[in-house]
């Protein structure tokens, strides 16, 4: 594969829908594995080889990828809670394992369930803009959710579902060890903080999750419904920038 050349997957045009979704899940996992090899320092590989010592991957990143792959493999075919019955694809999370910033949402929606990737629908497009606004590309941050399977009709995950799935989220965050966490919406904020206070009381100040600064803000889907709150969300994102610069 040539450096910088993107190859679009058109498998859904060639094979039935159900097989395409399964294949998309395997391709997503393969993407992770190949990325892990790359960050692990494999040189005999034409795809983006490091050009200098400075560009060589950090061993820590390879360890993080290994830990994420381990967590991901433990979730393969997961039936630990009732949400498994309605999923098309489990949505583990994606992004840079070395990222200083992790975004945590509530759970996959329709588009995410279909594609096996977090925040790819309309709300995801808005999140992409929010990420760009604070100076990152989507690939430079890490994005995941509290629950990895889509709740029916996009309902809020039930407390027992959150309690069952959130230990995997906590391990993801611990593996990445970011400098800042940004909780998108009340479910993510309450799960990370272990309380049931409204988002209006959780945002607007720096919170902490296991010693890591945590900023709570509105979920992009809520911002699409309530654009007047975008200014408040921007204040939260400015706090994220400030924390990353300290
Ligand atoms: S939501 Fe989490 S715990 Fe429940 S089935 Fe999916 S991966 Fe397993």
How much is the radius of gyration in Å? 18 Å
Envelope shape: globular
Count of alpha and pi helical runs: 9
CATH topology of the domain at 80-245: Uracil-DNA Glycosylase, subunit E
Helix/strand-derived category reads alpha/beta
CATH superfamily name of the domain at 80-245?
Uracil-DNA glycosylase-like domain
Number of strands: 6
Proper CATH architecture of the domain at 80-245: 3-Layer(aba) Sandwich
Proportion in helices: 40-55%
Biggest sheet overview: 6 strands, mixed
**Low-confidence parts, pLDDT < 50 over ≥5 residues?**
1-9, 39-43
User: What is the terminal-to-terminal distance?
Assistant: 39 Å
The percent range for strand residues is 5-15%
Bound molecules: iron/sulfur cluster
Strand order of the largest sheet: 1-3-2-4-6-5
Q: Class of the domain at 80-245, according to the CATH hierarchy?
A: Alpha Beta
Average pLDDT number: 86
Order of helices and strands: HHEEHHEHEHHEEHH
Report what the structure shows:
- There is one protein chain.
- With about 250 residues, the chain is an alpha/beta fold.
- It has a domain at about 80-245: Uracil-DNA glycosylase-like domain (Uracil-DNA Glycosylase, subunit E, 3-Layer(aba) Sandwich), CATH 3.40.470.10.
- It has nine helices and six strands, in the order ααββααβαβααββαα.
- It has helices at about 15-40, 60-75, 110-115, 120-135, 160-175, 185-195, 200, 220-225, 230-245; strands at about 95, 100-105, 140-145, 180-185, 205-210, 210-215.
- It has a six-stranded mixed sheet, with helices on both faces.
- β5 and β6 (about 210-215) form a beta hairpin.
- α1 packs antiparallel against α2 (about 60-75) and α2 (about 60-75) packs antiparallel against α5 (about 160-175).
- Mean pLDDT is about 85; it is low at about 1-10 and about 40-45.
